[in-house]
Amino acid sequence: MTARKWDKVATTVLYLISIFIIFVLAFLLLYILISGLPHVSWHFITGRSSSFEAGGGIGVQLFNSIYLLVLAMIISVPLSLGAGIYLSEYAPKNWVTSLIRNAIEVLSSLPSVVVGLFGFLVFSINFKFGFSILSGALALTVFNLPLLTRKVEDSLQAIHYTQREAGYALGLSRWETVIHVVVPAALPGIITGMILGMGRIFGEAAALIYTAGQSSPPLDFSNWNPMYIASPLNPMRSAETLAVHIWKINSEGIIPDATQVSAASSAVLVLFVLLLNLAARYVGNRLYGRLTGVKERK
Asked: Which of 50, 128, 193, 202 is disulfide-compatible with 151, CB 3.0–4.6 A?
């Protein structure tokens, strides 16, 4: 066979593999949505869960997931920005920075259950935070920080060196060039990575089983003082998230409508993650368009 024929064969095989993967992903997505959406209602989204009776909701679990997500991002975003800027703009090329990058690669590939056990030993036991939202948020920070750091570093390194030289030519210092030239130019990629990281956090369960807990105490939604023990914003209370709720229902199955609740909860979880992914693409394209004048990024 000639080189041109081999090229056509290889191209056809790659197209078939891509179509197969897309088909599998689309099938799984449609199966979850078709199985769960008929059982989703406003009462289900806002109502309280039930331990033994049918007709419970996921209101508290959904709130816990969002609260944990916000708290984890508040902790991890400044750390990842600082680490990414240092590795991209200031870190010298030697064995120390190579070791740091290798450590980040290893941490980003750790199973979430390992991170959960680490969070349980360090935050819940040694720091005496117990099963709490704070322990869960810190564990999620350990879980997501390596990926966010790599995304920030890659976004900064994608900026052409001539933009840095332009800043130096205008008399800006290295720090001013990074803050006023490089970071704004890399902002679309950074924000896209942050939003995708949010979707990864929202669907996490294994790391939270050992840190945030598998149950939620009765909450008083009339008092939002974080120091109040029954306040929804109290960071020291245990919190069952939506992903943990799905795992718990499928593992225990005590309630009569466990199958319907699990399917509906999974559909809500998938829709939320899809919205985060669509938001990442939309925000990234809008920022890219404002900075470059190009309407849509390829």
From this structure: 193
Is residue 189 in some structural domain?
yes
Containing domain of residue 154, as a range?
40-292
Model pLDDT, residue 133:
92
> Which residues in the chain land under pLDDT 70?
1, 253, 287-298
Which DSSP letter does residue 158 get? T
138 inside domain? yes
Check: CB of residue 95 under 8 Å from CB of residue 161. Answer: no
pLDDT at 135: 92
Residue keyed to tokens 């030993």: 121
CATH number of domain containing 189: 1.10.3720.10
* Closest by CA position to 47, among listed 61, 58, 63: 58
Check residue 198 and give its pLDDT. Answer: 86
Q: Is residue 12 part of a domain?
A: no
Q: Does 19 reside within a domain?
A: no
Query: Could you give the maximum distance between any two Cα atoms of the chain, in Å?
Result: 76
Rounded to whole angstroms, the Cα distance separating 209 from 203 reads: 13
Number of folded domains that form the chain: 1
**How many helices (H) and strands (E) are present in the chain, helices listed first?**
12, 0
